[in-house]
Amino acid sequence: MKKFLLTLFIVAGLTQTTQGQVGCDDMNLIVNVGSIEDYVNIYHPGHYLISPGEDNVITWTITDNQDNIIIQETLNDEAIFAFNHNIPTTETMNVSATLINETAEVACLIQDVLFWEETEVVPGAFTYSWAFLYGNTGTILGTTDNQLIDFEITATVIDTYLELRSSEDLNMTVYDKTGRSVKKRKITTQTTRVPMDDMPSGVYFVQLSNAKNNSQTIKVVKK
To answer: Which residue blocks in 73-157 are alpha helix, DSSP H?
Structure first.
């Protein structure tokens, strides 16, 4: 991760898109059809939106919720990034994609969270796949602070409460699997128990952010 952050600072000066080309905020990642529990296939639109395409270099970094690198790879002139992993479907993965095209003077960062989505196609019949939690719109490098925050969630499978520990004050927002905010709390440096007995059983996403606007999202399952 330190190497990845260093790359951001090195390319921070490449902040302008070539006239007539789309900007970073026009790009978003797509999980291709065919992802299974231990495999993800992601499409990056920068391959055709930014030209010359042969100069597009994308560095992918996938981490778990403890900031351990699952895979990190740099691809040239490639739109597809596919990888195998051993992350259970009850957890999430953090995705960072850095696109650099020196000829077009473009340097874009896209970040998002992958979660295992359950979709009911007809009553009683479901499909499952990895999906992005947010819209993952790209941002120009040099405008975002990407340091992780320091916290611990003691369990991701919960019953009546969610227990968190942090070395700094945090803002917490809980989202349901549709992306709707269902609970907000202020987390202090003391151990905090957030009641969840008022929430129905299912999958939730807990987003924590600090005063520097650094954030991280954890997937939890309420029994």
So the answer is: none
- Residues with Cβ < 8 Å from 87, sequence gap 6 or more? 64, 70, 93
Half-sphere exposure of 38 (CA within 13 A, CB side): 3
> Are 14 and 105 a contacting pair, CB within 8 Å?
yes
Whose tokens are 């939890």? That residue is 220
Closest CA to 106 of 149, 159, 46: 46
Evaluated on CA atoms 103, 62, 135, 119, the torsion sign reads: positive
> Domain 151-222: what homologous superfamily?
Macroglobulin (MG2) domain (2.60.40.1930)
Does residue 52 have a cis bond before it (omega within 30 degrees)? Answer: yes
| CATH C-level class of 2-140 | mainly beta
Residue 90: φ, ψ to 5°? -80, -5
- The Cβ of residue 13 has, within 10 Å, a number of other Cβ atoms equal to 11
pLDDT band at 150 (very low <50, low <70, confident <90, very high): confident
SS3 15: coil
Beta strand pairing call for 161-166 and 192-195: antiparallel
Annotated domain spans of the chain: 2-140, 151-222
Task: Using the Cα atoms of residue 220, residue 65, residue 180 and residue 45 in order, give the sign of their dihedral.
Answer: negative
Pick from 72-86, 145-159, 180-194: least confident? 145-159
Nearest Cα residue to 86 out of 111, 104, 64, 101: 64
